């Protein structure tokens, strides 16, 4: 999970532009380079900071992993804010600006319009306003944590002895003081990113213009029963397609899909006699990675795990009493409502009770190097109007699309839920804490040291009296209006399963007997099937579970490939490639050619089957669609006919031609002999600093990319960007964090992140964890102060200037 993804294109152009600024005469340039490299945060000694309270120690081990020893929680959260700012200030700055709709103010549009597109969307949705409203839902205890954290960040900004990070220097930018809303906006960004069903609704309504409802269902073969997708009869004859086209064109580029793995075993299924939890969230890969490992120790409270710079709470971890993990439910909690303007007054829209005025407000977006832009934001009773994004500063006329989403509600108490989860004493307290979670809906596995395990999917799920949520619906009739949300007791949940395990990898969380609709389709179930296969019915150790997280068997490669190889294969290099695949076990090993051949073949086969029917919309659909291909070959072979040719092709012909196309592509990339091809040469984890990776002098230092195992379907997730013509096999999405929790001894829990603790490209902790992450290694977050210091840890003591009153 993370904030809004930033595409590489705009940052590449920004980097080129600012790179010109550092092309100084060699002597001056070298001096500037050495000076910036010397600007490292202070990690030992003592710093006097503003405020009251007792001293707190920030202890950094050999990997830069932070343990904070403090007299109370308030001092600890302040120290965490200080440590985050020391190591990840630029990451924090871009996160809060993305949420506030202020990226263009920092970056401008000279090198691409993504910052302005993103700002317009964030302002339209009112994301930062929602974050400010969320502050009112915090209890006094939770607010103290957020207040103290902000104090810590601001204490660093005031007391830092070193220069600001190089990104700030290049853009000549000084960060503003940190606020509570700057921390809370991350929750809003995550809610949007992990619940982005509205984009799917727009896509379906677009392709229904040229395809039948049955064909649209063929594109997304359902795991669970659902009615065929079709537009409501009330929308026929309306100019909806033009509105949808304009809205899609105005949206910022979407990031890669979101996914994660989690499973929990009861004590009866482990060698320790106590539960074990595995969790690895899958998000877009960046350098630095989203996650930051930290531990807090006070006399009354201990917590360890993965934090996010900018946020005081532990997102995934354990508190010495309970441990938990998250995956995204992929439920449908967003709807687009088509609003019909009042024909007598376009400043109003129709409702079942008659005409009502659009709520409107003005938003001024500052743009670096250019005049500011004004955006008029409209809202209806259903939510913000997203079809105004391309209105050029005014309001759009005609059909309007309004977004309903619980994550934009003013009473979103998700931050309070996480605070209470951090402090849960046992399994029952976990369930009580999660009652307050609103968005995004998540699948949570949890266990306590007493041995109880559970699974629950907290979050607000709308109750729809009509429609299935897959396409936009009429907003003026009232028939499709949500009538409330599923009660907490009705959400999928269970404890202590007879099987001794709960497993989720974004697969369906409910069966056909569940009486409510969470979603009409679910992500590919291959990872979940493989985890269940590995677990079997035996008992497992912590080491077993850690190895299972690194599994690289691709079930589609193992199961779909024999179906493809039944058909006659072309001669020549394509035949040689097919011969390699016939003896392959489906392991996506970075040192083998078969993973590359199989992935390229699937890439070309998806294009050959679906591109002719989808036309301009194919780019948004293009992915490794194993289930859709299996469905077509077995049940709907008419898709194999190329509608652009006069003859009628069959699936055998298309499968053979696709392999030839794949082999031609790979020959251009890796040479003529398939035996010499290597998956890892093209499948490299995209661990590159978006801005600094293209700069002269420092670009190599800013690039941590490394060849990796896995693919889209493996437990060790290695999703590729197959629609990227230049780098279709780059590893752009995967497990930036892995954790295994040992409830028999939580100090024996294992953690790893993909890059390093520091966001400073000259720090020794910039990329020191990359190879350990790639190869399945891990760290333990444990040890008292004396033990850590004896092992060589550095200690920085933060001493408040007013130590007379320690705050609780």
Automatic annotation (TrEMBL):
The keyword Hydrolase applies. Its EC number is 3.5.1.11. One of its GO terms (molecular function) is penicillin amidase activity. It holds the Pfam family Penicil_amidase. InterPro entries: Ntn_hydrolases_N, Pen/GL7ACA/AHL_acylase, Penicillin_amidase_A-knob, Penicillin_amidase_dom1, Penicillin_amidase_N_B-knob, S45. SUPFAM superfamilies: N-terminal nucleophile aminohydrolases (Ntn hydrolases) (SSF56235). Keywords: Hydrolase, Zymogen. Gene3D superfamilies: 1.10.1400.10, 2.30.120.10, Glutamine Phosphoribosylpyrophosphate, subunit 1, domain 1 (3.60.20.10), Penicillin Amidohydrolase, domain 1 (1.10.439.10). The keyword Hydrolase applies. Belongs to the peptidase S45 family. This is Penicillin amidase. It comes from Azospirillum picis.
